[in-house]
Structures are given as structure tokens and as C-alpha cells.
Amino acid sequence: MEMFESDGGRKTFFAEVLLPVPVPRLFTYRIPLNLNDKTRIGQRAIVQFGDRKIVTGLIFNIHEQAPKDFEAKYILELLDDFPAVNELQLKLFQWIADYYMCTLGEVMNAALPAGLKLSSESMVQIHPAFSLEETTHHFSEKEVMLLQRLAAGTMTYTEISKFLGVKFIFSILKSLSSKEAIILFEEVKEKFKPKTEKRIRLSAAFNNSKSLEEMFQSLASKPRQEAVLLRYLQDVPVLHDSHANKNGISRKSLLEGDISESSVNTLIRNGILEEFETVVPRFGFENSREANNIKLSDEQQRAHQEIIKSFDSQTTTLLHGVTGSGKTEIYISLIRKALESDTQVLYLLPEIALTTQIVQRLKKIFGASMGVYHSRFSDNERVEVWNGILSGKFKFVVGVRSSIFLPFDNLGLIIIDEEHDASYKQQEPAPRYHARDVAMILAKLHHAKVLLGSATPSVETYFQAKQNKYALVKIEKRFGEANLPEILLADTARKRKMKTLKGEFSRALLLHIEGALSRKEQVIIFQNRRGYSPMMSCEDCGWVPKCVNCAVSLTYHQYRHSLVCHYCGYREAVPHQCPVCTSTRVKTVGYGTEKLEEELNVFFPDAQIQRMDLDTTRSKNGYDSILGKFENGETDILVGTQMVTKGLDFDRVSLVGVFNADRMMHFPDFRSHERAYQLITQVSGRAGRRDRKGQVVIQTSNPSHPVLNFILQNDFETFFETEIADRRKHDYPPFTRLIEITVKHTDKKICQEASRHLGSSLREQLSRVKVLGPGEPMISKIRNLYLMSILLKMVRGKSDLIQVKGNIQNNIDALLKEQSFRNVRIIVDVDPV
Ligand SMILES: [Zn+2]
Ligand SMILES: [Zn+2]
After folding, report:
1. For 103-110, what is the mean pLDDT?
2. Ligand nearest to the CA of 578
3. Alpha carbon 424 to chain centroid distance?
């Protein structure tokens, strides 16, 4: 009875919990009395979902209202003492779910790294850097038992539960994880493999001046070993700082210069030096803060001042600076200023542009206070960044689009570099958000400033700047003495007629390549199509091999000698004869990066040629290794897809060749001219830096095309005026908002019927919205699903967006309730890119 009395007067609370499931609602759980005082909004809670599953949820709300029609289950455990997600983030999640028409669960899934979403499907492994002998933490008996067992291999949640004979093991896992003894992850394939490094240090016995002196005397007749030790002491001041020896020096840097490797090995054998391995961060380098003496040029200084001034009256500023104008230095200066006033900074970069090059540069300036958030990182590394922001360790994060989800609580500045880049938009799965646009909302929540940067701003952004919604700052000169590259057009249609094309290369381009190579300069060749040939075709009847799962032709890959579908990965052997007319003349048509690489090898047999596209960069380090070789000058010519257009600054590149400009400009999409302008200008910007003027050769069969002319004249302003007039005339963004609805089904007829139903009901109900379609999209079948699409155009300010979205959702829900359409999949993409 006593128990009840002591609980007397205590209230029963309920929590609305957000679960990582695609169900459009929160779930009510009961808070156990003993957790009443500890439960807060934003904490992670372990709950049971369904009969068996155990998942991590986020506490979204706390109240006293018991649910009416069911009995709420208890929260099993809290994973955090302090909220892992703050209320600003929860507001942002809600905004994303509403705006992009998806569920909060889908947003949570995208936002939280898997390691923060412990569930009964989680896997557990021992932390590679952990050693039971060396740890200073205290462990319970059960914890030690588990750690010893985990040393033998990964275990699942259920296995651990059985092994320990405990039903709910979350508190044990939570404790071990906080002591960095274990790692939790979702799937075996994500297993965390840290990068390790061999290091060398002086054996502890010699870590004092007396024994050190004696040892040097004993080595008097061995000058090469002596040199090793002197070199070591030069870098590691063991006598001044006894801790310095503990970390030693990396084997690699000890061996730099004239140091003999065999002498190092002898010293290790004789117990004077010792070798050990240590885990290094993904972007692994010594944490040396370099004196930062970035000096802004007059032009940069002026832009910098203008940006700071613009922030007095505007939230958002667009920095429009030509390629090579040194925007990064301006960013660095602004970041430093924001950090000095004790606010956090987020620096967003497109996926591909976030290279080791830029990270290393920033790390040298901002040191350990900077976190890097990258999708190529393991989940564990992402959890480290998340926790680093919570603990205050990271005040500045450079990252890709998903870093908008990180737990910032005091942002002062968000920089969105290459703001025009389409990879800021997430296509699959939901939420289909645009990181640039979400970052604007994030900034509003924090009262932070936003700086958008680009040499080729998107039409939408530039329009806002022209309307004075954003401030506009320009840099029209390149940094230093450098001039913008000289651009030449090579008319391939004429040359084809005159037969002066060699393979796919014009004479002009070949001559320029030859010249660059003879001057020991580097060349970039851009062709936005991977593989050898985009298709094969029978020369007698015109038959083209197609994918069995998708409505696309197969791309020929020579290195695999097979035909591959770029949409689903389907692969088949190259046919020896045409299945329709039995002709053996089945030939490749067109060309991709592989074919250009092959031709270059024929024309320039002595040149080192590398290819950079999806096929050569699939491995984790493929990308960095190709770039590394190019940076060292080991590669003379780099052939690649749009991967070569971004974020690379190499001083020795003097020539860029652009292939297939025509295809970019004639792609049937209202953004194709904008894309072509951006891609060609960006890749051209790789040519010529510092004191050298670069050259660009664009191969085209349509040299009088206006877009090419704007590029040639570097006339962004007129290009923009032409584009915006076109957008206005045809009701495209920024004058309208678009929502694209895609209907998918394995049966073509059902797909068509469902889309017709949806189309006509939307047309009926949304009188002020233009409903286009349904129509077959350009690729009408992918992975055995037929596709139909409906496009909604809303004139800005003329229709209530919230109401329209509600209406769309109701129509979709109604459609899916009909028996015949139950298995139809419907995807809504707000602001498609
Ligand atoms: Zn044929
Ligand atoms: Zn396919």
C-alpha cells in the first residue's frame, strides 16, 4: 500500500511519439511514472511498435490526455538524458512534411543517421578503436561479458538479448555506446571500417634525457640510424613535452626526405622505436592549425564589405562571382566572423563538390571545431558529427544536403555554395526536398543570414535578386591576374561533311590538346554520358536493343563487353546478329566517355589518360584517387561526366574540351537551356588559373545557337533576360509553382486508368490550377513499373498552396481506396527539378 501512497498525487503523462514509419500520424505512448521527471520533447524513446518490433521514436509532444479508444503502451526506455533533437528541428521536420507532402516519419528517417535509430533490427559490433585493456571507463559484469563475446563478431539485437538472458537490453547498449565501446548499425553492409595509420614512437624506456643520451652514444657508428632519431626528435619534442611521444609520428611522414626505411626497421627490431596503429578520421590529417594569412584582393574585399552591409537589411544575399573569382576566401572570412560572434555556421556544398581538396583547406583554418557531414561517410561518422554539434564540439559544419537536418541550436550563417546545383534536390525516396529552399526556412527559424553563391545562379534565384527579395553582390573579375578563358566553337556538322573529324574529335580540339601536352599542361574533356556508346543499332533494319525492365535503349560498355541499362542495372551480352533480320551488322551509335578515352589513347599514346564517371568512381576511394593523381600531375588528360565540372581547382589545366553541347541544349525540359549554360560555363571555368589564360573548345553542330553565344560572350545578364521572358510566356517557375504527380503500376492499363481518374478529379476540383496530363513521361517504364505523370501549375499568389495540397492528398487517398487501384503507387514531387 505504501507504494501507492508515495505515488499519490503524481500525474500520468502521455507522449506523442514520432516513429520512422511512413504513416501520416504520431503514436501515443504512456510515460512510466519513474520517467515523468526525465521525459522531454526531442528525446529518443524506445517503444514497441506492432507485436514484436521495437523501434526508436522521437518525443514530439507531452500531455495528460489518455487516448479514448485504446490502451496506450508504455514507453520502454529513454535513450537520451538530454534531447537529441531540438524544438527548432521538430518545427523544421513539420514544415518539410507539410510542404513536400510526405509523412513526418519519412522526414525522421532522412534526418537521423541510422546509428541514432536503435531498433530490434539493429546490429551491434565492437568499436574498432576500443580496447578493454586500455579503456578508462568502468564496465559492469554483464557489459564485460558482452564485450568479450562481441570481440568474436557482430551480433543482432535478439542474439544479445538471448546471450545475456535479458529482454530489454537498451540500457546496456546505451551505456556501452556512450563509452564508445560499441557501434550500432542497421545493416551488415554498412559495417564501419575506420581508416588506420601506422605510427612510430620512441620506446618508453628512452623517454628521458639520460637514457636518450646513452642511446645516442651507442649509435655513434651508425649514422643512418642516428639520422632517423634526430629526425624524430625534430618533429616530436619528447624532452619538452612528455605527452608528445605518446602519439609519435606517422610512418609516412618519418620516412619523408632522406630517411632510410631499413634503419627505421632496425630501430624497431632493437626496441628503440616502436610501431603502432591508430584510427584516423576519414579526412585524416594532423590537426595542425596553419597560420591563416588569407589576404583578400581589392575585388574580394569590396564584395566582402558589400555582403556584410547587405545583411543589415536583408536576410539573404546572392554572391554572383565568375568562376575562379575566389568566392571561397570570402566565405572563410564570413565564417570566421560568424564564429567570433559565437553562432554556428553551416556551409552547404553539392555532393560532388565536397572534395578532400576543399575540406583539407578549411580544416587547416578551422581545425577541430569543424565537422564534415558527407554521404560517403559511414553511419558512425555521421553520428559523431551529430553528437559533436550537441556537445558544442563542432560550431561549424561543412556538408552535403542532408546536413540541414543536424541539431543546430544557434545558427548565425548558412552558406549555400553552387546554389544552382540540381543535386541539392533529393529525388528518391521521400522527402523530396530541396536543401537550398529548406535552408532558407532553417535560417528563418534561427534568425540566421543566408549567403547563396554561384558563377551561374539559377533562374529562380537570380529573379529573386532582381526583385530585391535577395541582395545581389557581384564579382566580375577573376582572382589575381587570371583572365576568363577564351572559348572556341568547333562546328562538327560542317567538319563531318568535309570529313575532317578524326573519330569524334575535331582537328581544332586535337591541335589544342597536342599544344597543351607539349607545354606539360593538363586537359579536361567533358562528355556528359558514360559508357562506350549510348546505344547499338542494326544497320539493316534499325533494330535497337532495349532494356527488358525499362523503356530505354541499352548502353554499350566496352570494358565489360556488355549492354547495360542505366536505370535499373539490367545487363546482357552484346548480340552477334540482329534478332529481327539476322544481319550481323549491329553497330554502336554515338559515343560516351569510354569511347573518347579509347580514341584519346590512340591519338596520344604517350599521354596518361584517366576517366572519371560513375563507373570508375564506384569504390569508396575511387573518386579521391583519380583526383589525387590529377592533382599530382600524374594524369595528363581527364575524361569525365559532370563530375569534372565542379569544385576542382587545378592550376595546370589550360584546356577544356566540351562534347555534345547539342544534346544538353535540346533536352526536352524547360530547364535545358539553363542547365547547358551552367554546365558548359562551369566546366569552362576549370581552364586557366593564376597567370595563365585557359582555352575551351566546344564541339557543336549548331554553332549559332543563342545559348552558346551567351556563353561565348560571358553574358549571363542577357541569357537571364531571355530565359525569364520564356518562363513568363509559358507559365514556368518562378512565375508558377509546379507539382508533379507520378502514377506507377506493373499493369499499363491500370496505370493509365488510375492516372486518368486522378487527373479528371483534380481538374474538376482545382479550378484555379492548370492540370496538365496525364501523359507518358519521357521514360515510360522503369524497373517493370509503367509510369504516367500529371503536372500541376499554380500561378504564384493566385491559389492557396495549403488548400491545393490538401485537395491533392484527399484525391489520392480516395483513389487508393478503390479496389482496382489498391496497388497503384503515387509519388508527389513538389517543385520538381
Ligand atoms: Zn536487323
Ligand atoms: Zn532497365
Report:
1. 94
2. 1
3. 8
